[in-house]
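**Backbone shape codes:**
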Amino acid sequence: GPDSAAVLLFTSGTTGAPKAVALTHYNLLLNALLFKDVLDYRRGDRVLVCLPLAYVIGQTGLLNAAFAAGASVHPVQAFEPAG
């Protein structure tokens, strides 16, 4: 159901050890739809995913939001800064 856990993401541990946080199916859906609208993702867009999908912003703000819009996802295998 919408209130059951869909994924466990871990906090950064800034106040202690990292902790698992359960996000529900509804959390993921609502976040994806909001990010889709704010970032104006549209069907046919190509979204470059350069953040780890283990982070909530990578998963919901990029991956799930792109899927919700019907956009394609192009993950970067590894980040290598120039220079």
